[in-house]
């Protein structure tokens, strides 16, 4: 089956005053039609840069230096701005963590909802209005016509995020990329928004990529998951494979950090000792080795390839291969 989105060997470098920062390295990721794929990892692991590369919105100093991002066979890494802007908001859309950074405070919700629809030539003003109202209702906003004419500041954070979801759906995209869509919301609203996203995904046959550091979000909505660490994918597979039979010590650490967290409701990743290494300059070998209880000198010698643990479940760890998966569940991170 051809993937809707297929990322192969993606590398994104960012020019910084201290040197080149390798934000994403040799990333492979496939998303099928109708799939929800979560990308999970701590802050600074390259999740957002991956998402921004997919949608062609990388920061000024960042550039794709290797690899391809095939969206329905078209390589987005080679598209110019006109080509990308034709896809953005149309075939693929993005939902950000904080809607206020995307919503224009000086324009009504309705103007912002219909702008992309009209720009992409999806229909006239009447069709745009009708679709906007239909979607506002679908995402759970009552008194849709009243909201249509309001400005963003009149809405709560949860309602603004619902508006962002409606906006993402205006042009009937095939793929929605949501970067920490519920992080800024309280737990109850989070659950409601995730449920809405999942329902709409099924109803509209969308594919969803959800970037998160929250394993609770992954458990609720994902079919497949990619665990990222320091710019690399370290494990990928179905949710039950990756969290039921983890191959990488970092995945084990993520799970333990949730179990050990005092704040169980929010399921934040907080207790893996140590930090993500600086990604500036050349990094060789396993990037997790300084925090890994299973590390051996060989982990530092050369970059480690992904290995197959079972069908469709891969991980990037030398020790599992060479030492027959040493006490992975017994190690203390
Ligand atoms: N505009 C930028 N300029 C310089 N470095 C950047 C920029 N944006 C991201 N980075 C760096 O790229 C790396 C990956 O960052 P990214 O934002 O993708 O991580 P993340 O996993 O999404 O983390 P978070 O959850 O905090 O957003 C980090 O080292 C980060 O400091």
Automatic annotation (TrEMBL):
The keyword Transferase is assigned to this record: no
Subcellular location: Cell inner membrane
Topological relation to the membrane, as annotated: Peripheral membrane protein
PROSITE patterns, sorted: ABC_TRANSPORTER_2
Short name of any one Pfam family annotated for the protein: ABC_tran
InterPro entries named in the record: AAA+_ATPase, ABC_Ni/Peptide_Import, ABC_transporter-like_ATP-bd, Oligopep_ABC_C, P-loop_NTPase
Domain of life: Bacteria
GO molecular function, one term: ATP binding
Family membership: Belongs to the ABC transporter superfamily.
Protein name per Swiss-Prot or TrEMBL: ABC transporter ATP-binding protein
Organism this protein belongs to: Sneathiella chinensis
């Amino acid at each position: 089956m051809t993937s809707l989105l297929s990322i192969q060997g993606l590398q994104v470098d960012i020019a910084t005053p201290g040197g080149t920062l390798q934000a994403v390295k040799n990333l492979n990721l496939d998303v099928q039609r109708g799939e929800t794929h979560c990308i999970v990892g701590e802050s600074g692991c390259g999740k957002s840069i991956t998402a921004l590369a997919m949608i062609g919105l990388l920061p000024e100093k960042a550039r794709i230096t290797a690899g391809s991002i095939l969206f329905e066979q078209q390589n987005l890494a080679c598209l110019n701005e006109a080509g990308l802007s034709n896809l953005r908001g149309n075939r693929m859309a993005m939902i950000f963590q904080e809607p206020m950074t995307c919503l224009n405070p000086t324009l009504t919700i309705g103007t912002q909802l219909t702008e992309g629809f009209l720009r992409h030539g999806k229909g006239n003003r009447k069709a745009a209005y009708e679709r906007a109202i239909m979607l506002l209702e679908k995402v759970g906003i009552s008194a849709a016509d009243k909201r249509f004419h309001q400005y963003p500041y009149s809405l709560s954070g949860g309602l603004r995020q619902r508006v962002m979801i409606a906006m993402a759906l205006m042009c009937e995209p095939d793929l929605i990329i949501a970067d920490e869509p519920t992080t800024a919301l309280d737990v109850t609203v989070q659950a409601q928004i995730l449920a809405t996203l999942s329902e709409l995904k099924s109803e509209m046959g969308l594919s969803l990529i959800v970037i998160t550091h929250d394993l609770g979000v992954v458990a609720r909505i994902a079919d497949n998951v990619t665990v990222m660490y320091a710019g690399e994918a370290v494990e990928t597979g179905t949710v039950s494979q990756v969290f039921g039979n983890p191959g990488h010590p970092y995945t084990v650490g993520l799970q333990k950090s949730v179990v050990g967290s005092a704040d169980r409701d929010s399921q934040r990743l907080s207790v893996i000792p140590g930090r993500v290494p600086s990604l500036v300059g050349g990094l060789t070998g396993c990037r997790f080795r300084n925090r890994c209880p299973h590390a051996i000198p060989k982990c530092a010698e050369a970059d480690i390839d992904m290995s197959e643990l079972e069908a469709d479940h891969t991980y990037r760890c030398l020790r599992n291969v060479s030492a027959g998966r040493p006490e992975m569940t017994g190690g203390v991170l």
